[in-house]
Write a structure and sequence with these properties.
- The chain has 1 helix and 8 strands; from the N terminus they run βββββαβββ.
- The chain has one domain: OB fold (Dihydrolipoamide Acetyltransferase, E2P).
- The chain is mainly beta and 130 residues long.
- Helices cover 10% and strands 37% of the residues.
- A 5-stranded mixed beta barrel has the order 3-4-5-8-7. A two-stranded antiparallel ribbon has the order 1-2.
């Protein structure tokens, strides 16, 4: 959202008369894998929980304890790459890890996204009738 002072006129370049406010949402996504390259930040690759469609990546910036717990879980849950996804620096995971992601609101795919935390899906509720 962009707002400005009523009496200000548009001009290009930075100005204190205009204000840009970003609105964020926090939602859950299926973790597909973690992309890690030396010297670069780590990213979580994510899919829509309802459709399984890849929606983008989120910067992994929680505290060190969460990052270490996530990496341990990723190594324990290693799986094959999803069909059609080729990213050499990615450790893919089996389904069942859910990421809580803060992202720019109102976009179809993730933008300005950061992984806040993660959890494992409760498999007891996924097998109905057993």
């Amino acid at each position: 959202m962009v707002s400005k002072r009523r009496d200000s006129k548009y001009r290009s370049g930075p100005s204190t008369n205009w204000l840009k406010a970003k609105c964020y949402s926090v939602d859950e996504y299926d973790l597909l894998g973690v992309e890690r390259e030396a010297g670069k930040p780590a990213f979580a690759l994510l899919a829509d929980r309802a459709t399984g469609r890849y929606v983008g990546s989120a910067f992994i910036n929680p505290g060190r304890a969460i990052r270490e717990r996530l990496w341990r879980r990723v190594q324990e849950q290693a799986g094959p790459a999803p069909k059609g996804m080729k990213r050499p620096a990615t450790q893919w995971v089996k389904p069942g890890i859910i990421g809580r992601v803060k992202h720019l609101r109102g976009e179809e795919d993730l933008r300005h996204a950061s992984l806040q935390d993660f959890r494992e899906e409760n498999h007891a509720n996924t097998h109905k009738g057993e």
